[in-house]
Amino acid sequence: MSDRPVAIDPSDWVCPLPLRETKRIVLGHGGGGILSEELIENLFLPAFGSAGGPSRDSALLQVSGGQIALTTDSYVVNPLFFPGGNIGDLAVNGTINDLACSGAQPLGLTAGFIIEEGLELEVLGAIAQTMGKAADHAGVGIVTGDTKVVGKGGADGLFVNTAGVGVVPDGVRIGPEQARPGDHIIVSGNVGEHGVAIMSVREGIDFGTAVTTDSAPLHRLVAAMLAATGDPNVVHALRDPTRGGLVAATVEIARTAGIGVELDEGRIPVPETVSSACSFLGLDPLQVANEGKLVAFVDPAHSEAVLEAMRSRPEAAGAVIIGRAVAEHPGMVVGLTPFGTTRVIERELGEQLPRIC
What we know:
By secondary structure, the protein is of the alpha+beta class.
């Protein structure tokens, strides 16, 4: 058998299912909506095989003595700096939160930098310093990394790629497939702040008061939730509602678990500043990105204990129960409006706000 690599002709590749009416990537493919899901399910998964899965932000791997969680992410936020943070702490916190939503406590992170020729060293240094401080605050090290430089116009300043590895405590089984009818749905605080903070800078819009990113690490919050009752299986599913916001997170869990979701829209904490900004911009705050919040599906018999544990943490002082999982309308999310009506809530096709993480 020849050791020469097999040449692959791109013209021979056939997509297993059609990807809408486009033959090229559009921004919406990276937005966490329907186009993103189709890209993963119809292009990447057939190519990579059954080892991967679109329903998890991190993979659980069996090792001697237990489980570890492994995640990777890339950050292309524009602008690099925004109220309350920058691409550096966003990358650290986002990677930690992907691990946390599998129930894992982080062990170490990696950081890869794709730097555009011409980026000021002062800017890069400030971002690196922020990353280091964020990692130190979270109690996890950035243990290895890589640097590449591309020509002018090749990276829009700076792109950051990260990976993270963490340990899943014994007995913890958290995943979207674990959600079940009857579960209470808890959100850890105000929604929509990160996306509006990005837009305020990007579009130069003054909303009358400062809106800052909610970016924060959530692994200590998850540890408190798991310890609330002494039974780690009380918490069934967790998701950080980043791209696509609260809607994308709950729809993904509903579809994976084969359950329905009912959200009480009057109980969902949307700050007035976010609501006003979204009304001005024509956005749905429930589909605007968050970077320091989580959504939890919890055993209803223990939801109050978990809620109390969450509220004892500064990153979840505003936690509230916003709905429940039901056996009806599996795979669908229904909103109960303040007017007493109901509506089906579906994800955006692409993305309301591109380049927000």
